Amino acid sequence: MTSIGILGTGRVGTNLAGKLAAAGHHVTLGGRNPEDTAARAAGLPSRIGFADQRTTARTADIVINATPGDSSLDRLTHLRADLDGKILVDVSNATRDDDDGLPGDLCFPGSSLAEKLQAALPGTHVVKTLNTMLFMVMTAPETLATPPTAYLSGDDEHAKKTVTDLLGDLGWRPEWIEDLGGITTARATEAMILVVPHILRRHGFEPFAVSLAR
Predict the structure, then answer these.
(1) How much is the average pLDDT of 146-172?
(2) pLDDT tens digit sequence for 41-66
(3) Coil, strand or helix: which one is 107?
(4) Of all helices (H) and strands (E), which one includes residue 6?
(5) Which is the CATH superfamily of the domain at 3-203?
(6) DSSP secondary-structure letter at 67?
(7) Cβ atoms < 10 Å from Cβ of 61
(8) Backbone angles phi, psi at 29, to 5 degrees
(9) Distance separating the N- and C-terminal Cα atoms of the chain
(10) β-sheet bridge partners, residue 3
(11) pLDDT band at 40 (very low <50, low <70, confident <90, very high)
(12) 214 or 116, greater pLDDT
């Protein structure tokens, strides 16, 4: 199985770590303080490792960016050498919070975090996906009453095929995955985050995804 490093130890990162480890992958959670992360993640499978973010990026075959989107570009730019030649799966949205803590304006209007990451990390294959849903849907898409959509954006076809296989391990059926094309298409899916806070304010954190209906 694949060696997967996850940068970010919040709900998104730990949720992905648990499902990918259960699928048989070797998973490392990368945080600023590995000991604290290990203590907080006591309920995760024992096969999950913990390391600092640089070690996680350097030693994994595939790296998932689950860090806060408004700081991801700075964080990952400092890991340029460690991410060189790797696939970087970007699941974050870069927004500025409104007064109630929910996503507000985009940090990169007219562009996207994924595009900024690809420009800053030219030796890395960036693939954008799973950023158009609440975190619990990422690993349990089958629980929604309506089939959800996982969008893919990226310039490297082999990288997108690898990420598609990884989505399968998370429970995503092939017909639920929509390849939009190159990395510039990520600005469309990242802009979808603007509808999310309005839904949350009306309905709370009930699982949902922003999906295609055919």
Answers:
(1) 98
(2) 667 777 899 999 999 999 999 999 99
(3) coil
(4) strand 3-7
(5) NAD(P)-binding Rossmann-like Domain (3.40.50.720)
(6) S
(7) 15
(8) -95, 125
(9) 34
(10) 26
(11) low
(12) 116
State the helix-helix crossing angle for 113-120 and 69-77, rounded to 10 degrees: 0
**Alpha-carbon distances, residue 109 vs 1, 105, 140, 202 (angstroms):** 38, 8, 30, 25
Beta strand 103-106 with 95-97: parallel, antiparallel or unpaired?
antiparallel
d(CA 179, CA 164): 9
pLDDT at 137 over 90: yes
Angle at 47 between CA 46 and CA 49, to 5 degrees: 100
Nearest 10 degrees: CA dihedral of 150, 154, 156, 160?
-10
Could you please report the per-residue DSSP string of 145-195?
Answer: SS---EEEEES-HHHHHHHHHHHHHTT--GGGEEEEESGGGHHHHHHGGGG
The encoded tokens of residue 61 equal 């075959």
Q: Would you give the DSSP letter of residue 98?
A: -
